[in-house]
Amino acid sequence: MAGTRGPDSLLPDAKRATFLIGTAHLMAADVARVASDPTVEVVLSADAMELMGLSRDVVQSAIDSGHRVYGLNTLLGSGRDTAVVEESILDYQVQVVRYHHSGIGALLAPEEIRAVILARLIGFTRGGSGVRPEAARFYAELLNRGVLPAIPRDGSVGSSDLTQLAAVAAVAIGEGQALAPDGSIIPGAAALAAAGLDPLVLAAGEALALVSANSYSIGAGTLALARLMHLADLADTALALSLEATGRYDGGGNLSPFSPAVQAAKAVDGQRISAANVRRLVRGGWLEDPRREVSVQDALSFRAAPQTHGAFRAQVTALASALEVELNGRGDNPLTELATGRMVSGGNFQPMQLALAFEALRLGLAHVGISSERRIAKLYPPQRLIRQLNLEAARSGTPLASEELPGLLWYSAAGLLAELKFLAAPATLGAPTLSADVEDHSTLAPLALQQLQQSVEAASKLLTIESLTAAYLLSEAQAAEVGGRESAAEARPLGEGTGAVVDRLFRLLSEQLLASALVERGRAALRDLLPGLAELRLPPGEMDETGGEA
User: Fold this and answer.
1) Could you tell me which residues come within 8 angstroms of residue 88 by beta carbon, excluding any fewer than 6 positions away?
2) 319 Cβ partners below 8 Å, 6+ apart?
């Protein structure tokens, strides 16, 4: 049996933050936070340990009965009706791990690896897998002692992430490969030894329980959820900046579509949040001046943005719900059923709801990207005007002014939008039948997730380009007012939130970075800045996104 050398793993280190896994409902956002922070210690509650013990009793009863149970004393897939003799059961556990350890491609990042292990550990504690409590404790120790199995990215068709989880199980039994602290690849046995862990010796039925779950799709999905929540706020911030910019250069920036009256007229989930975010960001600025002459209606990429962004937010909420269904459910096959004391075959390993949530979000992100790129296009004429003014000034002997904003970022934005549209195509419909036509339908959830991760990356760059473009124009307008240049638009006070963003991004723009560095550093600056902007409040009497008075 496995052993750990050192203090009891159930006793938390008082110097470390802890994450308690019990039998209560767990939130996807919390799982993402823990997976992203290797300093957090994972602790299993007494209730969870007891539940896993009861689940293991069901497995032991099935063993004692001698009845055939899938994967316990039979082969897998098309071999489901072929018995495994009792004398071979323990060797069969090792064979199952080795057989499924077949992933290919690039390795997952450390936070993704932790997310995979954490998601599977949570699955053990739901009481459906039948692993021994000590096996679950071993997985907790992998996390707490920094053991990172080398998990290849590709190999799952979304009917359990077999190959990714087998890479974890291989290290657990002292095989496979792991990541060293310096990022190099070392034998799994060496990684265990360095962490003070003896290899896990699997009991009957545990190999299948270790590999048969959707822990890659779930775990990495929680990390994607965290990025999507940030993207929703970034989209609103870019929109607010563009509203300010079009107000100064093109007579736009009409705030009527963001009013509480409009939002109350149609209860689209997330729409009020998006509109309220924009109102917060522009509060106290020139756009709120009732004396300002403004077009009666902006283009739909501005005017209908709360509806687009709101629908995207609703999809993010749907993803959180789907992730929490998987995290808190029992997706094992066979399922240990405590009420009847039986092991039951089923299809809970098929995460269709989760796969479709990944699919929908890529389409939603493409629509968010379309609106963003169209707003960038409308901010291009002022940029051309500024360059013309700089040329005129240079003809009179003034040194040609430098341009902080690379001129063709709009083209990069157009390319990113094309990528978003391409990635919005369905991913989940393409799986062939496998295992002699027994596994004749799969979700391809991992592929849908991976395409979503690419979409998130592209959308983040696109929205950052919009933010940088608007911030550049707003800083130029402010400089023109201070310098008394009559040829530029007259600058007025920026909103409380938009002003903070422009100030932060102007510092980057003034460094005259290459375009790639500017966008990457802009993304980082916005990641740091946006949480603080969420603290801004609406004017008295307005309603916040929860329906209460701000």
Assistant:
1) none
2) 221, 224, 225, 228, 354, 357, 358, 361
- Residue 533's alpha-carbon distances to 45, 51, 457, 465, 526, in angstroms, are 37, 43, 22, 19, 10
Q: Which residues are CB-contacts of 483 (< 8 A; sequence separation ≥ 6)?
A: none
Tell me the sheet residues that pair with 107. Answer: 152
Amino acid at 528: D
DSSP string, 316-335: HHHHHHHHHHHHHS---SSE
Give the integer Cα–Cα distance in Å for 357 and 384. 41
Q: Give the residue from 334, 329, 336 showing the smallest Cα distance to 346.
A: 334
User: Which pLDDT value is given to residue 482?
Assistant: 66
| Residues 178-200: tens digit of each pLDDT | 999 999 999 999 999 999 999 99
In single-letter form, the type of residue at position 120 comes to R
Select the more confidently predicted residue: 473 or 74. Answer: 473
Are the CB atoms for 197 and 152 separated by under 8 Å?
no
CB 102 within 8 A of CB 460: no
pTM of the model: 0.92
Would the pLDDT of 489 be above 60?
no
Instruction: Give me 525's structure tokens.
Output: 């600056």
Separation between Cα atoms, residue 174 and residue 193, nearest integer Å? 9
**CB of 279 within 8 A of CB of 289?**
no
Tell me the pLDDT band of 1, cut-offs 50, 70 and 90.
very low
Q: Do β-strands 41-44 and 18-21 pair in parallel, antiparallel, or remain unpaired? A: parallel
CA distance 489 to 476: 9
- Alpha helix segments (H runs only) across 108-214: 110-124, 133-144, 162-172, 188-194, 206-211
